[in-house]
Structures are given as C-alpha cells and as structure tokens.
Amino acid sequence: MKGILRPFLVSALTLGSMLFAAIYTSCTPDKCKAIACAYGGSCEEGACKCRAGYEGPTCETVTRSKFLGFWSVKEQGSVTPLRQYPLSIEKDTAVTGVFIKNIYNYFSTQKVRAYVQGDTIIIPNQQLMGKVIFGKGYLSSVAPGNNNVITMKYEVIDVATQLVDDFGYYHDVDKSEASIWSKQ
Fold it and tell me: What are phi and psi of 31, to 5 degrees?
C-alpha cells in the first residue's frame, strides 16, 4: 500500500503545484499591457523608460521643447559690465540638439551649438567668430509649472587677445556670477 500511495501523492502534489502556478500567473496583471510609450520608449514594470531626448509619463514630450524660444538675458561678466539683451534657442536636427543665437550679445550671425539633457543645457567647447565658448546651464522654475529661468554658467575667450570673460563658470576663482536667462 505504501508503494502505491507515494507515487499518487507525488503526482497529486505536482499537479496541484502546476494548477496553482497557472492560476496565480493568470491573475497577475501585465503592468505594461495598457501603456503605450511614445517615440520608441519602452515599458518596464508599468512605467515608460524614455529614449534620450524625450520625457513625460509616456515619453510624449521632447525634452528640448522647454528650452526653445526667446529669452531675456541679464549678466555681468568678469570683463563685461552689467547688461541685458535678447537671445533665442532654436531646434537642431538631433532631438537633443539646439542652437543658441546671440549669446554673449555677440553670436548673432553664427549660432552656438548646444544640447539638452533633462533640465540641463550644455555648450560644448567650440570656436566661432574669433572666440572660444563653452558652458552649462540649469533650467529652474520660478512659478509652479513654469520652467522659465536658466542659470547659465559659461566662458568666452577671445582667441586673439586671450582675454577671458567668465559668467560664473569659475566663480571660485574670479567671483563672477552666472548669467540669468528669463523666458519671454
């Protein structure tokens, strides 16, 4: 009797475990079933994981969009006096790329290349119109829901004279302050 009962119990236990596993997995909902992620984003554990250049709950927003438009700049460099002037940020062909027109109140005919990562705009080191420029800025909100101020730290070096005009990039060295850009 013992020899017959043991295989029967093992079979019953195995069948019961399989039945439990089938019922359990069929009752566990697919967290990504009803989620559609835009612009090539992928769903993981019920949340969209966005590709570079996109953000939002379903990756529906192009990250650089919040930077595009017209800005009013107020700045005083380590060399230049306090001044205010307009500039614009425009789309580049790459989804993270932008062009800055009239930064330093100088680069109006040739645009400065930059790119966006989240709430940061980065100007890689580049030489244009006899000057070298590089820097980094951070987008912040002054009013809830309005991303409308960039605190920009950058430097402009005149190639011919080697004169350096700093806007907070090396604050610890020259006590210069960051440039403040307000969205128009």
Answer: -65, -20
Question: What's the rounded Cα separation, in Å, for the pair 75 and 34?
Answer: 48
Q: What is the pLDDT of residues 10-68, one digit of tens each?
A: 565 665 566 555 555 556 678 999 999 999 999 999 999 999 999 999 999 999 999 99
Among candidates 111, 104, 87, which has minimal Cα distance to 163? 104
Instruction: Determine the Cα–Cα distance for residues 109 and 101; give it in Å rounded to an integer.
Output: 8
**86, exposed or middle or buried, with CB in 10 Å at 0-12, 13-18, 19+?**
middle
Report the C-alpha gap between 5 and 168 in whole angstroms: 83
Q: Return the DSSP state at 168.
A: B
Widest Cα–Cα separation across the chain:
103
What tokens appear for 76 in the block? Answer: 């005083």
Whole-prediction pTM value? 0.81
CB-CB contact of 62 with 50 (8 Å): no
Dihedral of CA 177/106/108/112: which sign?
Answer: negative
